[in-house]
Amino acid sequence: MWIEDLPNGKYKYCERYTDTKGMLRKVSVTLDKNSSRAQNEASRLLYNKIDAKIEKEKKKINDEQTKLASITFWEVQDEYFSIYEETVKAKTASLRETAKKKIRSLISEKTLLSDVDSVFILEILEKLYYQENYSYSYVKTIKASFNMVLDYAISKKYITVNPISNVRIKKKTQTLEQREKKKEKYLERSELKQVIKDMAVIDKSTSLLIEFMSLTGLRFGECVAIQKKNIENNILHVNGTWDSVSNSKTTTKNIYSDRKITLPKRCVQIIEEYPLKYPNDKISNDNYIFIYKNHKPYSLSVVNSRLKKINSSKNLSTHIFRHTHIALLTELGIPLKSIMERVGHNNPQTTLSIYSHVTEEMSKNIIEKLNEIDLLN
């Protein structure tokens, strides 16, 4: 204990102590006198003060430990998503909400956060993938949803280690049938021509839309979010995507998706002949090109429902035209990096899945042509 003289003639009695976290702290009391009796009284008051602070700290630690011991995974999940949904686009939040509901169908509301360890998660993912035959990509989505919540739990000091780091799901060996299904990811030129022709019978506007996507490689949301001001001569600035949940144009999927591409002549023609539904007095640079009845961009569900009416051996959806564009560029001998830049890919995995298959087919064609060469006659 030490004593400090104060300007007002009083005395401050001070003492240091180590708190429950090992930190050095200071307490003090002020008395009128500096006598032996006053020092004894100050010592008593100081140690009572220290005892009270340590007891308060211990109670706080016990309360926190009790809370941590009783907190459920659902509670942490709710806490995380209340913040997460404010930081992403409405559509992204909607997709994560779907994954959240799936996890809740597999985990009891009373499941403690402390019980969600690597074995617990692994058993859930293995059941989904190996027993219930969910796709590998879907299982990865569920795993990612677990990971986000558990990372948040670490930041809040609910846990110290994320158990997901020890979880590994081995991908199943592909069957011949599954390999053959890669062909269904895109349309051959003859198939594309037929689909466009068949769609023209069903709906001319949709036919022009899917033809435009096939020649640009745009995602559906990027395509219907095109405004007049995004096009200058034959250069298209892809600067946004249509969010069907918020019913508005938002930023592109990522920074790589914000790009400028050159439009082929046919795309310029499509824009010029696309059947506008705006009254003349409403046409402006802010207008969208590919609009539906309500002057809003085409709905994904509307286009996909029309594609289902076409008789095709392929599973037709709007995304197949993006993959078809990659296939067309590959056939033209365009380098992989240039294709990725045009379609806005930063991860080559998706591009390669199409690129590799097409180049494999091209190699077969080379052999077929070489076999036709007769050098003896």
TrEMBL record:
GO terms for biological process: DNA integration; DNA recombination. SUPFAM superfamilies: DNA breaking-rejoining enzymes (SSF56349). Gene3D superfamilies: 1.10.150.130, Intergrase catalytic core. Residues 182-368 form the Tyr recombinase domain. GO terms for molecular function: DNA binding. Belongs to the 'phage' integrase family. This is Site-specific integrase. The lineage of its organism: Bacteria, Bacillati, Bacillota, Bacilli, Lactobacillales.
